[in-house]
Design goal:
The chain is mainly alpha-helical and about 180 residues long.
Length: about 180
């Protein structure tokens, strides 16, 4: 919205969004922690991949900022991240409807799969570092595919909690 409605330069909009998220996400995470909808083992594995890659993403954004066509490239990356996230959510919805799956797993009883979870964190961290998009839209969808029985509130709580250090790392990298 900052880019499209207010003509803010994409790299500035991304950095501003990350800094704002650093202040907002801890409150949402705290709410989910009190409701016990956070799997801290899953959070830990995701952070292992996401935080280092968020710094790398912020550095890549910085490198793109020096090129003449950088803002167009950033806009394309941002658009691609949003489209991929939206498409994946629609695909997951139809797969759930077709399979008749109900999400009844309990977040604390989840058997965590460390390597794919770290990879989800790494991919999400890189994308968040470059575009500021991905923590809620892309990573939660990847988690849906990896842990299809978890309910939406449990996925949101876990993802939001891991997004606190992720966005802090991306914002620090952007600054």
């Amino acid at each position: 919205m900052l880019t499209l409605l207010f003509s803010v330069k994409p790299s500035t909009a991304i950095s501003s969004d990350l800094v704002a998220a650093v202040f907002m996400r801890p409150f949402g995470a705290a709410v989910h922690m009190t409701k016990k909808t956070v799997n801290f083992r899953l959070v830990g594995w995701m952070i292992t991949g996401s935080v280092p890659m968020a710094f790398l993403g912020a550095y890549l954004l910085h490198l793109m900022g020096h090129a003449k066509t950088s803002q167009a490239n950033i806009e394309k990356a941002l658009g691609a991240a949003l489209l991929i996230g939206a498409t994946a959510m629609v695909v997951r919805y139809f797969l759930d409807r077709k399979g008749g799956h109900e999400r009844k797993a309990v977040v604390h009883d989840l058997a965590v799969r460390p390597i794919p979870t770290v990879l989800i964190g790494a991919v999400g961290g890189l994308i968040v570092g470059i575009t500021s998009v991905g923590s809620g839209s892309l990573m939660i969808v990847m988690l849906l595919f990896l842990y299809p029985m978890l309910g939406a509130n449990q996925l949101v709580g876990t993802d939001l909690t891991q997004a606190v250090p992720l966005t802090a790392a991306a914002a620090l990298g952007a600054l």
